Amino acid sequence: MISLVVSQLRHGLGRAVATVLAVAVAVASFALLSSTAAVSRLAASGTVEANARPLYDVLVRPAGTPGPADGLVRADDVASASGGISLAQWDAVRAVPGVEVAAPLATVGYVMQHVAVPVDLTSAVDPGAERQVLRVRPTVVSDRGTTHVPDGDTYLYATEHPIEMVPGEPWEDGVVYEAGELPAPVRLVEHDPDGATEDCVWGAARDDQDVDRFAPRDRESFACWSSAGSVAAAPEAPTAWVGVTVPLLVVAVDPAQEAALDGLDGAVVDGRYLGEGTGAGADAEPAAPGELPVLAATSTALDQTVTLDVERLPADAATTVASSRTVGAALDLLGDAPGTVVDRVEIDPQDVHDRLLATLASPPGAGEPPWLRAPTTIVGPDATTVVDAVRVVGPATSGPVDVAGDEWAGAFRDDPGHDPVPVTSADLPSRPVARYTPQDRGLGLTLRAVGAFDPALVESGPELATLPFEPTAPAGADGADDASRAALGDRPLLPGPAVSGWTGQRPALVTSLEAAASLAGYTRAGEPLPVGSAAPLASLRVRVEGDVGLDARSQERVRAVADRIHTATGLRVDLLVGSSTTHVPAAVPAGAFGRPDLVVADPWLQEGVATAIVTAVDTKSLALAVLVLVACALAVGNATSSAVRVRSTELAVLACVGWPRHRLFGLVLLESLVTCGVAGVLGAAVAVVGAPLLGVTLVPSSVLLAVPAAVALGAVSALVPAWRAARADPGSATRAPVAHVGRAWSPRRVGTLAVLGVARAPGRTLVGALALALGVGAVGVLVAVSVAFRGAVTGTVLGDAVTVQVRAADYVAAGLVALLGAVTVADVLYVAVRERAAELALLEAVGWGSRSVARLVLTEAAVVGAVGSLVGAGAALAVAGLLADDVPAAVVVAATGAAVGGVLLALLAAWWPVRTVRRLPVARLLAAE
């Protein structure tokens, strides 16, 4: 029987090659698809496992804090919290068994610091003018260029005449001065060539104290400069000093616990860490009386750019200034003077931050009041780091927020070191603001930077598990709709200089809890600053001992520690293992200075994401495995069945000459096994060669399983045809498989004849349609499974990353399934042409041209393709309906596209059969018939 099988394969080489190629494609697809699914699952699971544990496992918040709604925790609610946990409760948490680290975090609040930025006006000065006045008009730009707030102008009076600084009278310690008896201040005197002298007006405030601190008119200043260089320490170039106010968020930590949690000590790039000092001990912070030691961040995410328009005023402006006796009079006279813009300068926020760091590292010492020193408009404003007020800011809200004027009051422009406030604070607030000041106005603390840390060097946990409320988490919120993204220039909305704005800052200054206790004297309406109260801590960040993963044992161990913390303290606990950042759309109201209404993606924390992702990955892998098995099994079954069906006449002849049923059955089965065995080896080789080209990592077990799987599928698919061949009546087996179509009808068009031809052979038509339905339906089902998977895991940082990671596998799977369907259709059409060879030869014999016969075959292919595509698309939509309540639009589009593509594939697959039609030996086929 072996020799007969070999002889049959050799004499029917075309049929055997077609079967081998169809089965080989199915085998190669099986190896590639199963490998893709397995590798995709391993990669996704590995990503989830690597990012399942954030920097800490349990977040502890004050008792009474609302719990997560649907597992969501708003990042801003956590980052903006202040106070609520006592030091005793912190000690109790540290004593809980299983706690490795319990790092406290206390929000001190915002402190305002004034930075004077020198602006060289050399290019704007008219070298031929004896006296002249330049005006610098600043505009503070924030909110990604959508907010423009004009600030007070700075004037520079430049003269070629010498300017002398006349020292003021000294202040005596212990003397209380009455109004009108203050010591004489410093004076600037200009010496004219004729010997006359005139006082130069300088300063930053008008004479009256009834000012609007946000009105540009009340924020103007005046400076003097002489090219004669007669004042010591005066700049050589004409310089205007533009004041920029920077809000700094201060937090307090325990240095030892913080170092153990996130390695803050290792992020120090200049100076020293908190608590380090000679003989100070691990937790003590040596500091001079009245100083608050801090670590300063080396970079800032503050969105505050100051643009300066430099104007040259008319020549008579200098005469006006010279005749003025006070700053207010000079500013009143020059306020409406026209000017010609001669230059434009931009102040970068990082440059401002660097200047501020330098001042914090070397703050001015005690001495006489700053207004008794050299005029600020000559040698630059006197640096000061006094904390005159601390502002505690609540969470952002889309509704109207009322911030009383008292929260901004308390300073005038003539004393920039005294609680300065950014002009952008005049914008509509999104957050409540509470201002705390020292009980004794003369006892404000002075900031001193003992070191600087790089926020990028602070550990924040795995990249995809960074907690959105961590002090070093990225600040900002992306636009959530097209209009908002366009307004923001596809950039996130960053924190601005207005502390009441929508986006909160990340901490710029870090101090120790012990040092922060010195802020206990700051009060508001008799209430102490939260960090100076009996419950100063806003949160505790707890890391559990040992390794923690997604296994049930680890989860239970973390849950047990959290339960013990709650039992011991009564505080709110949130489990963070397996959590990830998600984004919730939030409406940001339009501002008063140009910012439009925005919708931003507010960062939240979604709990339990990792477990949901692993479950979705496992479900998808199972669905893909079933899809692969079904697709490949049907493809192999179709190929082997077609190969047996095309030999029905030969088998009938063997039955007529006396072959028993068991030999016919064995012949068909053995031929199928040999064909599928050869195809299995060829398919495995194709998979090995094609995997690198497709970017697929082959799983060895999938390749090794390919050959026996092909043989097994070939045996199973050949059982029914072999049984039918052994049981069928020899006479009926030799009759053509044509259905009775009723009375005779003479079709006049190729299309009509094609439809009749399809109807006359329903079995063949059904096989072709089902083969194409398999490919179209498989693509649609694959898209439905992928959409369901993305719907289960997307929306979080970790889920989005996993979705992107497995997307390539989905594309490979879709491509291979489509290829499998195309090869199956081509095999069916080829076998159909071989079966109808005599019929097609007869058409040519009666006058049909080869092109007409080719059109007939193509039209039949289109009919079969349309039927199969519609069935496959309908099946895909039905499966999608089972996976989701509503069929996703993506699945509808994919099913429609697959249906159209199925028809095109059927036409393309008919190319080889059409080529075969044109080579039909007409005379020989008619003679054989």
Which residues sit in consecutive blocks of at least 5 with pLDDT less than 50? 278-286, 365-382, 411-417
- Report the strand count: 26
**Morphology:** elongated
Largest sheet: 10 strands, mixed
User: What is the gyration radius calculated from CA atoms?
Assistant: 42 Å
Class by helix and strand content?
A: alpha+beta
Helical content band: 40-55%
Mean pLDDT: 79
Distance between the termini: 28 Å
- Quaternary structure state of the chains depicted: single chain
Query: What is the number of helices?
Result: 25
What is the strand content? 15-25%
Provide a compact summary of the structure:
With about 950 residues, the chain is an alpha+beta fold. It is about 45% helix and about 20% strand. Strands 1, 3, 11, 12, 13, 16, 19, 20, 23 and 24 form a ten-stranded mixed beta sheet that branches. Strands 4, 5, 6, 10, 14 and 15 form a six-stranded mixed beta sheet that branches. A four-stranded antiparallel beta sheet has the order 17-18-21-22, with no helix packed on it.
List the helices and strands and how they pair.
Layout: H1 2-11, H2 13-50, E1 58-61, E2 72-74, H3 75-79, H4 87-94, E3 99-120, E4 131-142, E5 147-150, E6 154-159, E7 163-166, E8 187-191, E9 197-199, E10 221-226, E11 239-253, H5 255-262, E12 268-271, E13 291-297, E14 305-312, H6 316-323, H7 327-334, E15 340-347, H8 349-361, H9 376-379, E16 386-387, E17 390-393, E18 433-438, E19 445-453, H10 482-487, E20 509-512, H11 513-516, E21 522-524, E22 527-528, E23 539-544, H12 552-569, E24 572-575, E25 580-588, E26 598-606, H13 609-645, H14 648-656, H15 661-694, H16 700-727, H17 730-733, H18 750-760, H19 762-793, H20 797-835, H21 837-845, H22 850-883, H23 889-909, H24 911-918, H25 922-928
Parallel strand pairs: 6-10, 11-20, 13-19
Antiparallel strand pairs: 1-23, 1-24, 2-26, 3-11, 3-23, 4-5, 4-6, 4-14, 7-8, 8-9, 12-19, 13-20, 14-15, 16-19, 17-18, 18-21, 21-22, 25-26
